[in-house]
Amino acid sequence: MKSNFTKYLPSQLKYFFFLSFLIFISEEAISQNFSIEGKVVDAQSIPLPGVNVIIVNTEFGAATDKNGKYEIKKVPSGIYTIEYSALGYEKVKKENVEIKNRSITIDVVLFEAAIETEEVIVTAGKYKQKKSDLTVSSDVINGEEFENRNFSNLEDAIRFVPGVTMTDDQVSIRGSGGYGRGTGARALMAIDGLPFYTGDTGEIVWEMIPVTELERVEIVKGASSSLYGSGAIGGVINCISRDVSEKPLTIINAFYGIYDKPYYDEWDWSGERRPFNGITLSHSQQIDKFGFNIAFTRLEDQSYREDDDFKKYIGFLKAVYNFTPVSSLTFVLNTFNKNAGNFLYWKNSRNALIPPERNANDRVETDRYLFGLIYSGLVKDNLLLNVRASYYRNYFIDNETPANESASNLYRGEVQLHSTLNKNVSLTGGVEEIATTVRSNLFGDTHSFQTGIYLTSDFKFEFPLIATVGVRYDYSKLDTLDGTGDVSPKIGLNYKFLKNLVFRTAFGIGFRAPTIAEAFTSTSTGGITVKPNPEILPENNYTYEIGVNYNYLALFNLDVAVFFSKYKNLIEPVFDPSDGLVFFSNVLEAQINGLEAGITVFILPKVLDLTVNYTYMLAEDVLSGKALRYRPKNILYAGLNFNKWNFQSGIDFRYISRVEEVDDELVDLGIVVDGDLRVPTYSLDLNFGYSFISMDLPLSIYLNLKNIFNYNYVELVGNIRPIRSYSFGFNLAI
Amino acid sequence: MQQAIKRKHFGLILLAIAFFFFVISCDHGIEPLEAETSGFSGAITYVSDWPDSVQRSFLVVFQDPLVSDTNFTIFNLKFLSQEIPLGASVNNFSSLDSAYIPPDPGPFPAGTYAYIAVVQQSTPNLSLARKDWFVSGVYYANGDTTQPGAMIIPDNTFVRNINITVDFNNPPPQPPGGN
């Protein structure tokens, strides 16, 4: 099983030459250049900065500066529709704008809107779409929430997304995932469209994401393999990083907090309130055609549990070179180093915050790097080329004897074309290649290869109906295992019955190839011994959903979806009764059906709003009729937010019903003592923030109280979630 | 008037929410269990009819594996239950029940026990001679029916689900030393 990567190297080189060639030909394709400029003001003739001005069905666009002025350069001749939009203002469309051998000036007045401008999503179709045009359910976490609610880790924010649950660090969108002990994920995570999972375990490393650098996070629910291939079997989570600031901008963000004492005195293993802190320094600057965002984050947590402390260092660089307003090359670098305790599970319920003696002083050191290159540009009118290449290195080593050590390299390349054939039809297609090499004493010296080709199309009818049809073929080869091919089609409909009443329905088939860890793991840790399973097969699913969204004036927004899914060959860790060892096997045929309902009530528009989301889910093993492990039946999130006089505050409540099934073997075998103790989740957080902008100070401060009832619950057996904590932070923008 | 009704409704909603959070604030979720007495419990399930020849039946726990008849000693026998009612279809047992061995119910020592079985006798009186014992069911760990399963009792832990199936028509392999 020696590395065969050298076999793939020539094709990688060819790929980069091809990328360079495409960049040059796209520059040549742009010739006739005119501009559209103007000024955008509000009803009182006050200039409006930050208004998005886009030429519909093209990639041309700009934003207004502090004087409300904008300029879209190098626009080819043609007849266009220009759209002006800004949060809190009614959108304005200028139709039949003709550019013919001259530049033009268009001044616009925007009027305040009763409700916020519609969100744009890029993840569902790999190009910009209005959220109300989608055929699938989606959610967005805005970047400012990370600061306001002191989420230093993306997984903490994901816990509040409707229909999404976490079991420790493993995500489950509508019940797609259980707990696979750090191997594999049934949702694909990406940063700026670059898939973001490790080459050996296939896991999502949440803590590596630089949350202070995110503009927003988009979550698309349901099988998305027709565009994203393996891993997107349950959905996609795409992190969109911030654009480069037009003016030099330096931000210092820091926080300091403490965990309260545990509720039970006998759990107070340290006798002190344990501190945690973090600091991020970031800078953004545009120099002519070149711009960059750079950020360094240091996080330290002494933890409320023994042998669970960590120090993390996160680096992020996004460098953008704009060849023209419609073509750019972006370099992304994300680095991560961690030295942490390795807390697996508690000693017992009387010692819930310390590990068993055999796991005492367990530690792990991690180094990870992601390099990404993204080219985006118009090849010709209405034909957009996106090329993405990335390299992800993952290395970790623990302090056991002998040490568990693994290094993996994941190489990925994708060429994608998006074309708006006419105002009613758009087409997106592409090819993707992924190669992985692993050197590890847990997973062996192994390699894998995947290739995929996809095509999807959106049709807009006058009814008004939008239909989405797509299909992707993937071929996967996992080291010595037989290669397998999978076809993942999807179809979706979006029907705007009324302007404020939208129906949507989607059907998709997804698949997930087993990860190297699931096939080849051979290790022993924490009393659990895992053995390889070279017979493992890919898992498949189909998902179907029907949903409706209704807006009533500026009073509320209601969204309801019913979903059905069926999984075959679901990979789960199981115990082999013949030797008592754990291995990953295609054991389950499962169905997961449910309902998701969410309402946002604008009690006082822009001042006070209430959001309530409820998910009911029935996830069961078809053969045994038992509930799937780690899938709750009821999930409820509620949030009340107040924002006025530069002051903001929020209350966030989370309820998750007690999961019916967990890893009983760990309990029965006495590995996790008292491991059958679990309760429903009740979590209440409070946050307060104040901005000093009215005093001309670019400073905001915030206070967070999390788990204020000091309620003790587990997501994973023998793992108490964070107890009550208080933190104070500030954000200074210079 | 309408506004007054709205205010009243809003007030009621706030009151209900406050009451809800008050109730939750009294609950602190998972709490430490009392230190457990070490021991074991489980169930014997009989899947066939009892033969008329069976005079009495017991649950037995041996510390060391029964690899030869020398292991069949009173010193290795750590638990001998009271007689199981003849004809039972299910019998629940616990180390806290009164038993012949040990004579006084109480904590059962933590450790590893290699052989747990249901045995039957056809002699007129209770006999501790190996030749008078016939094993009608054995405890298997993790579903592995190729060999007797060990019962591991950690410190301060009461191990549950030590379940044994008895099929008189299909008895397990007999340990050495029998007839």
Can you walk through the features of this model?
The complex is a heterodimer of chains A (734) and B (179). With 734 residues, chain A is mainly β. Chain A folds into two domains: 32-117, Immunoglobulin-like; 120-733, TonB-dependent receptor, beta-barrel domain (Maltoporin, Chain A). Chain A has six helices and 43 strands. In chain A, the strands form eight sheets. Chain A has a 22-stranded antiparallel barrel. In chain A, strands 11-16-17-14-15 form a five-stranded mixed sheet. The longest helix of chain A is centred in the N-terminal third of the chain and has 25 residues, at 5-29. Chain A starts with a helix and ends with a strand. With 179 residues, chain B is α+β, with helices and mostly antiparallel strands. Helices cover 13% and strands 28% of the residues of chain B. In chain B, the strands form three sheets. A five-stranded antiparallel sheet of chain B has the order 5-3-2-7-8, with no helix packed on it. The longest helix of chain B is centred in the N-terminal third of the chain and has 24 residues, at 2-25. The A-B interface holds A 263-264, 266-267, 348-350, 352, 575-580, 665, 668-670, 673-674, 677-679, 682, 684, 709-714, 720 and B 21, 24-25, 27-33, 35, 141-144, 146, 152-154, 156-157, 159-161.
